[in-house]
Every structure is written in structure tokens, then in C-alpha cells.
Amino acid sequence: MEEEKYYTIEEVAEMLKVVYMTIYRWIKQGKLKAFRVGKKYMIKKSDIEALIEKSKV
Q1: I want to staple 7 with a disulfide (CB 3.0 to 4.6 A). Which of 1, 11, 16, 30 is the partner?
Q2: pLDDT digits (tens, 9 = 90+) for 8-52
Q3: Facing residues of 41 across strands?
Q4: Which domain holds residue 48?
Q5: How many domains is the chain built from?
Q6: From CA 25, how far away is CA 5, in angstroms rounded?
């Protein structure tokens, strides 16, 4: 079984070529699932892929 990868907001923003605040807003709006570890948000790779699939036209 493959282990799930997790990314910070900064890493996701870089991957999707958007600014940090865009990812933060998506989390607050419920468009992207994330959980907090201390002061940082962590986002599963599968949730990023789900957001991309949902965004396709």
C-alpha cells in the first residue's frame, strides 16, 4: 500500500502556480480539504488531485 503524501500551503501554491493566500482562501471556503498540525496546514495529495479534477471543464 502506498503512503499518502502531504504538502504545506506554500508547496501547494507553488505546484498550482498561485499565491499562498489563494490556497488559504480555498481551505477557508471548503474548496480544498486541509488539517492543521501546530500552526501549519497540511494538505493530502489526493485532495489536491480531487480539486483539480473538480475544476476541469
Answers
A1: 11
A2: 999 999 999 999 999 999 999 999 999 999 999 999 999 999 999
A3: 36
A4: 6-55
A5: 1
A6: 22
Residue pair 46/5 in contact by the 8 Å Cβ criterion? no
Q: Note whether residue 1 is domain-resident.
A: no
Q: Say which residue the cell 496546514 belongs to.
A: 41
Residue where the block lists cell 503512503: 3
Cell numbers describing residue 49: 488531485
SS (H, E, C) the chain: CCCCCEEEHHHHHHHHCCCHHHHHHHHHHCCCCCEEECCEEEEEHHHHHHHHHHHCC
Q: What does residue 30 show for φ and ψ, rounded to 5 degrees?
A: 85, 5
**Rounded Cα distance, 44 and 7, in Å:** 6
Contact present, 13 and 23 (Cβ < 8 Å): yes
Instruction: Give the Cα separation of 49 and 56 in Å (integer).
Output: 11
